[in-house]
Fold this protein.
Amino acid sequence: MEKREKGKGKPKKDVETRRAASSRWEKLFPTETTSPGETRALGERIAAHLTAGDLVALYGDLGAGKTQLAKGIGRGLGVPERDVRSPTFTLVHEHAEGGRLPLYHIDAYRLGDPDELRELGYERYFYGEGVCVVEWPGRIEALLPETAIRLRLSHQGRDKRRIERVEAEGMDG
Ligand code: ADP
Ligand code: MG
């Protein structure tokens, strides 16, 4: 952690890092895809910009394409694609092998209580050596790091999806 002097506001480096972090997404979002394959391809492009300790929060209804996007991110990181599927019964899928970075894929849909994630040692996934992708992040909003990359996917028709970057406020899914 960087030391912060009282009354001097945020350290300059922090502000610059945030600005750079934000601008890396400006070219990608908002966007629309017209097939699951296109959403996976978008995931691959997202993955190219990800580094260790990044968390990608995927908001959106059932069928919005969160898992398709996660698959693409996995592919972009070099994780065997067939392995990336909704971790519905296990909460977390760890893909430690084969990729540029480990991928931790979390589905909070069935999470009863954020304490379940605390017990699991979520810090290892959120602030670890890999990239963390979270489906249904609204269920664990309070635990998400301030730096989370929040994406909202929404239905625009049968095969059309809008994917945009959103801020933390007012999230419910
Ligand atoms: P979620 O994880 O958000 O519940 P999934 O990724 O599991 O959603 O499922 C998305 C469903 O929508 C899949 O059946 C997929 O084939 C379909 N689909 C149709 N068009 C798209 C698109 N443009 N992007 C992603 N999925 C799409
Ligand atoms: Mg899913």
About this structure: The chain is about 30% helix and 20% strand. Helices lie at 12-26, 36-47, 66-77, 114-119, 123-126.
